[in-house]
Amino acid sequence: MAAILTIADLHKRFGPLEVLRGISLEVGAGQVVALVGASGSGKTTLLRCVNALEDYHRGSISLGEEQIGYQDLNGRRVRLPETRIARQRAGLGMVFQSYNLFPHMTVLDNVSLGLVHVQKKSRAEANRIALSWIERVGLLDKVTSYPFQLSGGQQQRVAIARAVAMQPKVMLFDEVTSALDPELIGEVLSVMQDLARSGQTMLVVSHEMIFVREVAHRVVFLDRGVIVEQGPPEEVLVRPKTDRLQAFLARFRGVLR
């Protein structure tokens, strides 16, 4: 399967602390790749580098044939202008732990905003597309509601609809259920499962191991900024090869039996 997202020898530091130490990873079209690991292992930083929200110090990230965030110029790696990076981000939808909805806008306006201002669609076309995604995440009865009138799970579903409405090549999910009450987690994971079944390419950071086991094509275990193990869920989650992964999975023993 041809890679749609390619990460090659990625290094990232915060001061003297190297948080990504030579990450190389490919994601094929239609694949769901789950990043797992303890807090501080580099998962969120990796996603933020992919979306050009963080600079990195060595390596490359490419979406298709295009390098994200940088260009090679006379043997040097030079960051692209922000206007060009913004265009590149249109191919990378990202959903964060916090919902990041505009509080003064309705559900419909939150989802249609990028379609109008980034993709330059007419208001009527943007609303048509937005409504189709709002319906798909089960919130058609909330189109005129404001974020403060929604539960956390509903807000996160709006955030997902807003991202996928832009038709990104790859969706990035960063622990999107971590801020939710337990009874609301399932409704968000159900939307993500639906996207996976429809063939959406996804790079997902998650501690929801049942979801990872059932939905991911490949699981990548990060520890201290390096990839320790990767492979199909039935191998990585059931038959871990390294002590580090075995220790990490021990906390999920009751879930993964």
TrEMBL record:
List UniProt keywords, sorted A-Z.
Answer: ATP-binding, Cell membrane, Membrane, Nucleotide-binding, Transport
GO terms for CC? plasma membrane
List where in the cell it is found: Cell membrane
The membrane topology term of the UniProt record is: Peripheral membrane protein
**Stored Pfam families:** ABC_tran
Question: SMART domains recorded for this chain?
Answer: AAA
What's this protein's name?
Answer: Amino acid ABC transporter ATP-binding protein
What is the source species? Candidatus Segetimicrobium genomatis
